[in-house]
## 1
Amino acid sequence: MNHEQHCDALEVEIDRFASAFDTAAPDAGVPGCPDWTVVDLASHLGTIHRWAQNLVSTLAPRYVSPDDMGLETGPVDGPWLRRGGAQLLRTLRVGDPDSPMWAWGVDQHVRFWSRRQLHETLVHRIDLQLAGRREPSASPDLAADAIDEFLVNLRAAQAFSPNVGELHGHGQLLTIRATDVSASWSIRFEPEGFIVGRDGGPGDALLAGSVLELLLVLYRRRPIEASSLLLEGDGDLVDYWIANSALQ
């Protein structure tokens, strides 16, 4: 997916999140974010949209805290969510995806933010579905892109997700393979950290199944034991990855 496709998909996800929020119980707990209610989740996402919009609009050369931006904070409702989402989309669409700027991930360009905000919104829309005890949904191609974006950027997330720094080893290989789309990844644990590839060859452990189910497990929205995934080989290696790879 390219920048324009990410923006188009983000527009859909913003609307889906806002629509789901309109009918959700505000005080309901969010299983994927155990300390949050539905309102907390919506406040987080609406703030992140505004933060990203501000960064992209200024082509920020370095990190700027949301607290230093004077962002609109609410009231947290459907119009507030849609307004922040629309502002973000306008800024992303008029921006040059190749323009350099600060990003917390590996791709230090505007295009990082269209992809990141799409999958931030997608995963939190799934959180709303789970909070409402509904089965989550996502197209296979979108779920595959979300997994790829997560894996590509995870090592760079160590600054705010310190457990990522614990992911190292002595050459062990974890293979992740989707069974409903042509997508697979390999994670090799080396002494200095982990290395992500896209070959999906045989390894010490295999995690395989539908790409949506993989997304739910990798983002810790569904325990492996409650999923339909196939786990072969070293289960401790998979548990080690899941325990330390969460974005915080």
## 2
Amino acid sequence: MLESTEWTIVLIDDEADIREVMTMSLQDAGYRVLGASTGESGIQLCEREKPEIVITDIRMPGMDGIQVLETIKTRLPDTEVIVATAFGDIDLAIRALQLDASDFITKPISDDALFLALRRAQQRYTSRKKLLDYTALLEQRVVNQARILHQDKLMSMGRLAASVVHEINNPLSGILNYIRLMIRMLGKGQPLEYHKDKFLQYLDVVERETARCSGIVSNLLTFSRRTEPVVHPVNIPDLINRSVMLIQHKLDLCHIDLTVSVTPGLPVVNGDMNQLQQCVINLMLNAIDAMPDGGKLMIRVEMETESNRIIIQVQDTGTGISETDLPHIFEPFFSTKEAGYGVGLGLSTVYGIMERHGGDVAVVSQPGQGATFTLWLPVVTG
């Protein structure tokens, strides 16, 4: 609770002697006290000073205490209001409590009753403030999680960019060469019928390579787009294929052999394809980083019938994870990489995505013996 010297009290009463006596008692206790003789001037004082607590008489000429209470709760809802009543105004006191007054005290006002009411008002004010602060913190955490999710995706995009450029450049070079070859052949003046069979072969290659480039670009755009989570049935083999398509050339460049094993006939899961793809790509990129001299990457997908979940395992033959680091790898901003090569968001993002999908993630690893990351996803039922 705040110390009394941190609290401002506005005292509203049309009787000057009552204001003077109460002000002296409150100031002696360490409160900052501001007085007003009417409800109207009291409201103006409250709007200017923003006090934590208001003590108002109920019966006053012009704006009475009930109207003061209603106005303050409308304009300054966090301010606590204590009403002062005569013994014959108990009905009005009950009405004040119904309007969210924190307490009431009866005249003549004793110091014991006054400070008891103040303690209750302080407790209410402090509890309300803590609740508001906690709610704001939760809201900010949601915003921060979305920001981290997108930031990690951008980092993954940066790591994929060079690989995708090469992945597209190779088929484009082949397409360009075939087109130039056909132009040269036509330039020799020979009839089109003479080249028909060769042209059909060339055009077939051009069509396939163009479709491949289109698929890569489309997949990359889908992965990079910042959209709200959209939950729908997700085909896991399709998820793996899309992820491998974006990562394949990087695997080739890093001399990593990829093996994919997917159990046929898997049921679908409910989830966001984009976010689940981000999980798989993050794990594959981490595996590549763990094998700087090349190695083997194995992806296994199977059904765990006991728990009615699909298991996705990403296993590498890399450097492994130390026993000291292992308990912390899913924490935000924890990274074992050198400065400039990661900020520790990838695995925490994977953890958050799996949690939102009702799934789970775990890792088994030893230094020098690689690592196996396992994702569990509940299947669609009914």
